[in-house]
Amino acid sequence: MTTPKYLSGDAAAIDEFIDRFDVFLLDCDGVIWSGDHVFEGVVETLEYLRSRGKKTVFVTNNSTKSRQEYLKKFTGLGIPSNVEEIFGSAYSASIYISRILKLAPPKNKVFVIGEAGIEHELRSENVPFIGGTDPAFRRDVTPEDFKGLADGSLLDPEVGCVLVGLDFHINYLKLSHALQYLRRGAVFLATNVDSTFPMSHGFFPGAGSMSMPLVYSTGQKPVALGKPSQAMMDAIEGKFQFDRERTCMVGDRLDTDIKFGIEGKLGGTLAVLTGVSQKEHWEAADAVAVPAFYVDKLSDIGLAARKQ
Is 279 a known ligand-binding residue? Predict the structure, then answer.
């Protein structure tokens, strides 16, 4: 097993590391910020990378926000960015449905378990959908629901796909609708299958925890459109036309970010220790992925290099 190179505090090694790449794909949660807290030195580090002619692309599995909403968050947190630099799993899923899946009418509607970010991106690709943030689905299940779902009278006959993302209002009624659509042949998609996501210096159930009851009840696994899915890498490459050898994936999770970079045959992967995965995770015999490089925090690659 290869041993990742530790870069923090080693200015010469950091300089050499930055020179190896033209493009940096950066995860957000656990790398740039935790919740609404931006990690110290991140803004300066991004500016430093850009000043050296590097392209930065923000690649996030969080499906609760659209690209426009992410841009608002970046701007509000003082991070210079533009909407074309942001590539989220909600956008990736919408692109997949509209341009690859190409559901034919009349079964071209999507039943959404998720937040407004998914809805915005589906609308941007002119994909019809139901569910999502509709208040009609944010309630307790009734005896009439069981009857109508079982006999199909409460189902929309035009639904041909179920898309599951992170949903802060997940409930039995939504899962029951999704199950019935899947049992009737709908395509099963997930924005991503992260088990948890970091927020306010803690961890909470992720999008994968929303789709897991459906995996268990149907025996099917969804096509996942976030990291580490190579469908997402292909979509990013299609949009930005980068050289994979000169591209580095930066992230905090071995099972999504680092695996994404390795399976995508990128030139390098950089793990940061401000999120989910820690050093002992890749040192374990059953490590899901091992980064090529690691730092304590993202700002280490900016601060140390500028101190030369």
Answer: no
pLDDT in tens, the chain (308 residues): 679 999 999 999 999 999 999 999 999 999 999 888 999 999 999 999 999 999 999 999 889 999 999 999 999 999 989 998 999 999 999 989 988 888 999 999 999 999 999 999 999 999 999 999 999 999 999 999 999 999 999 999 999 999 999 999 999 999 999 999 999 999 999 999 989 887 877 889 999 999 999 999 999 999 999 999 998 998 888 788 899 999 999 999 999 999 999 999 999 999 999 998 888 888 888 888 999 999 999 999 987 545 55
227 among the known binding-site residues?
Answer: yes
- pTM attached to this predicted model: 0.83
Residue 221 known to bind ligand:
no
What b-and-e string marks burial along 90-122, b requiring 16 or more CB atoms within 10 Å of the CB? bbbbbbbbbeebebeeebbbbbbbbbebbbbbb
Residues 179 and 214 sit within 8 Å (Cβ to Cβ): yes
Active site members = 27, 29
